[in-house]
Write a structure and sequence with these properties.
Layout: H1 9-26, H2 32-39, H3 45-67, H4 88-103, H5 107-115, H6 121-140
Length: 153
């Protein structure tokens, strides 16, 4: 089944990314030093940014399904994607956390950091791409399993 999307879907995704990146830059979260200071318990500004994002996301997740049964731009039904908690979740989280702690940057903020002129972040971005590629190679060698989706019977 081919999914038809609203013509504004991609431009709005771009605008959303632009707002996200601007917000990271404006809040100084695109600077690895700020993130590393947070991880060393010296600056808790990142908590306010994360809590603000969590509140906005929580409100959106609570309200949007009640406003309509389908997403306005894609036409797909709202639903939760359920994934079992397997050994890959804590292992992946630990690997992500170590990378975050070593570089002081997460993937979204890395692009914003590049946008504010931090060209040395290209090393971290290269590491993210290589790591993602290696994970994809390892995953392709495992037997295929399909994620469970709420509503699929």
């Amino acid at each position: 089944m081919t999914e038809t999307r609203h013509p504004l879907f991609m431009p709005l995704i771009f605008v959303g990314g632009l707002i996200f990146g601007f917000g990271l830059g404006f809040s100084h979260m695109a600077q690895p030093e700020v993130v590393l200071n947070f991880l060393q318990f010296e600056d808790f500004g990142l908590l306010f940014v994360m809590f603000g994002a969590a509140i906005v996301t929580g409100i959106a997740f609570a309200i949007m399904p009640r406003l309509g049964r389908r997403a306005p731009l894609t036409g797909t039904a709202y639903g939760r994607r359920l994934k079992s908690f397997d050994r890959d979740v804590p292992i992946g989280g630990a690997i992500f956390g170590v990378g975050w702690g070593l570089s002081g940057i997460c993937p979204g903020a890395a692009y914003a950091s590049l946008g504010v002129g931090n060209v040395t972040i290209l090393w971290a971005l290269a590491g993210m791409f290589v790591g993602a590629y290696l994970q994809g190679v390892l995953r392709s060698r495992q037997p295929a399993t399909s994620p469970s989706v709420a509503g699929d019977d």
